[in-house]
């Protein structure tokens, strides 16, 4: 990957809806070579996809909670079941398995505190071997995830 590839990536990170003509203009290439570079970056897995960034309030999911979750066992069956269960929950927008304590970081987006309590009670706390859940409520988002 060279400086031109990095420039293309930077522009697409800012605006994934750029036309090839506009992208080429911004990075100083003609359209053919620009398109071939983008296609190569996609084929190589550098560009993994494109997505729309949705306003959480517009879809009733503006209440975000960060959870630290510890399990009482870290065997493959326990962790696998936990991961599969939460991956299927639409409220979960991010799930990370961590080294050390806690075992998992979970980012949840719901409508309000009542919806969060229902999610926690009906989804998280029903998973076998959940030892501890600590909920962190965001006061203010300084730099949102991309």
From TrEMBL:
GO terms for molecular function: sequence-specific DNA binding. One of its GO terms (cellular component) is cytosol. InterPro entries: ArsR-like_HTH, AsnC-type_HTH_dom, Dimeric_a/b-barrel, Tscrpt_reg_AsnC-like, Tscrpt_reg_AsnC/Lrp_C, Tscrpt_reg_HTH_AsnC-type_CS, WH-like_DNA-bd_sf, WH_DNA-bd_sf. The lineage of its organism: Bacteria, Bacillati, Actinomycetota, Actinomycetes, Kitasatosporales. GO terms for biological process: response to amino acid. Residues 1-62 form the HTH asnC-type domain. Pfam families: AsnC_trans_reg (PF01037), HTH_24 (PF13412). This is Lrp/AsnC family transcriptional regulator. Keywords: DNA-binding, Transcription, Transcription regulation. The keyword Transcription regulation applies. The keyword Transcription regulation applies.
